[in-house]
Amino acid sequence: NVLVHSPFVLLDYSPDTMVMATTADQTQIDLKHLLTGETLRSLTSASPLITASFSPQGDRLAVSSTEKIAVDIWDVASGEVLQTLSGFETAAPVYGAVFSDDGQYLIWISRGIVQVMQIASGDMGAVLGHEDFVTGVALASGGKVLAAATAGSVGEDFIPLVILWNASGGEELGRLSLDGALILSVAFSADGSLLATGFGEEVVVWDVASRQMLVRLSGHTGQVNSVAFSPDGVTLASAGGDGSVRLWQVQP
Question: Model-level pTM?
Answer without folding.
Answer: 0.88
